[in-house]
Amino acid sequence: MGWTKLIEYERPKAPVKIAVAGFPGVANVGGQVQAYLVNELKGKLIARIFSEHLLLPGNVAGITIDERGGFNLPSVDFYLASTRPIVLVYSQVQPLPWGQMEVAEEIVRYLKDLGVETVFVITGFVNKDDAGKVIIFGNDSSMIEEFYKHGALQNRQIKTIIGLAGAFLGALKKNDSMKYISITGIAEDISYDPKASRAVLSMMDSVMKLNLNFEHLDKKIAEIEEIRRRLIEELEEQVSEESEEQSPEYVG
Fold first, then answer.
1. Is beta strand 76-80 parallel, antiparallel or unpaired with respect to 44-51?
2. 240: Cβ contacts below 8 Å, ≥ 6 apart
3. Keywords assigned by UniProt (predicted)?
4. Are residues 129 and 239 in the same domain?
5. What are the pLDDT digits (tens) for 121-156?
6. Residues 227 and 120 in one domain
7. 182 and 221 together in one domain
8. Do both 192 and 225 map to the same domain?
9. Residue 28: which of 182, 155, 187 has the closest Cα?
């Protein structure tokens, strides 16, 4: 077992029954959703997990530096929402493959200690035909039915969940003391996709009554769509010009 340590900065005054977790992954849906929820629900940092298995992107040791010149080691962070009793579990990095289960089990241990009963795990998936939709599965049948009522799809596509999200779901099932629901936003491709995150957030807002404000996210989606449109136009013009230049001066 490697070096993994949890540091608690502030203890919630009462048990927190709901947790939402999301990590960097496909189309960065999990990371985007969590970053948005931390901001919208005014999350306050209450604990962090540090580990030798948590490295910077590219699997290199190092630190991140904030705008004030302070620095932090890579970590898994726990935020307590100020607007309602929800713990938000978020990290900007993925653990090394051989340390994912150890980190996941430490997350489960701490959530259990906080009194969490239900965990929502946010992930991303690619399927161009179903882009913008949400897939749901888990062991909380009543909650899953609520998501179905709001348009969620039954899982017939996902065969594997990799990274910390997969290890975390495995640790939850192994622990068998908390209910879990996997919420997956479907993206057009593997690149950053705020529309898939928007679909997840919208459905969570409807089912869980989070009272989220989507103005900022919708603006970001519009900006990205405009950038994509311009890039496609430029590529089409470039291809057209190259085609004209290479056109032969004979027929056949």
1. antiparallel
2. none
3. Coiled coil
4. no
5. 999 999 999 999 999 999 999 999 999 999 999 998
6. no
7. no
8. no
9. 187
Q: What are phi and psi of 215, to 5 degrees?
A: -60, -50
Q: CA-to-CA distance for 95 and 103, rounded, in angstroms?
A: 7
| pTM score of the predicted model | 0.87
pLDDT in tens, 21-55: 999 999 999 999 999 999 999 999 999 999 999 98
- The closest of 132, 77, 131, 82 to 106, measured between CA atoms, is 77
Query: How many domains, the chain?
Result: 2
pLDDT: which is higher, 252 or 170: 170
Q: How far apart are CA 207 and CA 144, in angstroms?
A: 10
Say if residues 9 and 79 touch (Cβ distance below 8 Å): no
Which residues make beta-bridge pairs with 21?
A: 89, 121
Contact (Cβ atoms closer than 8 angstroms) between residue 2 and residue 43:
no
In the predicted model, is pLDDT for residue 249 greater than 90? no
Closest CA to 25 of 156, 149, 153, 121: 121
Q: How far is CA 23 from CA 30, 79, 233, in A?
A: 5, 14, 33
Q: What is the CATH number of the domain that holds 27?
A: 3.40.50.10900
Is 74 in the same domain as 138?
yes
User: What pLDDT digit, counting tens, does each position of 46-102 carry?
Assistant: 999 999 999 887 778 888 887 888 888 899 999 999 989 999 999 999 999 999 999
